[in-house]
Design goal:
This protein is α+β, with helices and mostly antiparallel strands. It has helices spanning 26-36, 115-118, 146-150, 172-175, 188-192, 209-217, 243-247, 264-274; strands spanning 12-17, 45-46, 54-55, 60-68, 74-81, 95-97, 100-106, 125-127, 134-136, 157-159, 164-166, 198-202, 233-235. The protein has a four-stranded antiparallel sheet with strand order 6-5-4-7, with no helix packed on it. Strands 12-1-13 form a three-stranded mixed sheet. The protein has a two-stranded antiparallel sheet with strand order 2-3. The radius of gyration is 24 Å and the shape is elongated.
Length: 275
């Protein structure tokens, strides 16, 4: 089985804001486009326009309907619709402010102690010591899918066409590409997000922008009870003020208008509109 490297001080990862994600799938499409033609492609699809489409997507977006107790209380998220995936994962049992729909992007969390690495019999699945990114060496992968069984987050994608496992790489072939402008050395999903719901940086540095954002918004790890210490963080939706709370603060009555001071035409309009 594959061994893990010593704990890295640099932990590159994503911070995803569930408050501003609108479920547009721009991140998934940009990820597919970049990786399909990059060092880790192609990402094959099958029957894309048929009744049972299948394919390899490093990033998937699921939508859930939040239900709860009202009066600004907290509710649980239940599945509303879910993208088809051979390795699906339920939304965490975390409370969400209500009401509304929660769009939940899902990809590899680049755990500090990933089970997908330690179960790999060939060393194909490995964790980089220098930045904590979890990758797959397709030359060593035998397609046994043990890593997919071990991952509780459903982040592994099996390519039946190529016979290997594939997954999010944090666009490692992009973030270190010095031929790109420094502003473009970010994962494709981050650059494509129209609402800036995705952030990338070093979560091992407490002074980094992403770490400060997590501290400010109470970002949390996905299902930490499994003990794999995922690096990625999710920012919870902000509480919404519902109608019952809004009604508890009535608005002042509109100031009365003296119609006797109006012209005959305006008085006629006022009578017509007041019927």
């Amino acid at each position: 089985m594959t061994s893990l490297p010593a704990a890295a001080t640099r932990k590159l990862g994503l911070v995803i804001d569930l408050d501003t994600c609108v479920g547009c799938h721009a991140c998934a499409v940009a990820c597919k486009e970049w990786n399909d033609g990059g060092s880790f492609g192609p990402l094959p699809d099958k029957d894309t326009h048929g009744p049972e489409p299948e394919g390899v997507w490093f990033n998937r977006v699921h939508s859930y309907e939040a239900t709860g107790m009202g009066n600004g209380g907290w509710g649980m998220a239940t599945a509303k619709s879910e993208a088809k995936s051979p390795c699906t994962s339920p939304i965490p049992d975390s409370p969400f402010p209500i009401p509304g729909t929660i769009h939940f992007p899902r990809s590899c969390l680049h755990c500090e102690t990933p089970a997908c690495v330690t179960v790999c019999p060939t060393g194909a699945s490995y964790k980089r010591a220098e930045d904590g990114i979890v990758l797959v060496d397709e030359d060593k992968c035998i397609g046994c899918q043990l890593c997919a069984w071990a991952c509780p987050y459903g982040a592994r994608e099996f390519s039946a066409q190529r016979g290997v496992m594939q997954k999010c790489t944090l666009c490692v072939d992009r973030i270190y590409n010095e031929t790109l402008d420094e502003a473009d050395r970010q994962p494709a999903c981050v650059l494509a997000c129209p609402t800036r719901a995705r952030h990338f940086g070093d979560l091992g540095d407490a002074q980094s922008d992403v770490s400060k954002l997590v501290a400010e918004r109470g970002g949390y790890a996905l299902m930490p009870e499994f003990g794999y210490q995922p690096v990625n963080r999710y920012l919870p939706p902000r509480p919404r003020r519902d109608a019952s709370r809004a009604n508890s603060h009535p608005q002042p009555a509109a100031e009365a208008i003296d119609t006797t001071q109006m012209s005959p035409l305006l008085r006629w309009v006022d009578r017509v509109l007041s019927r």
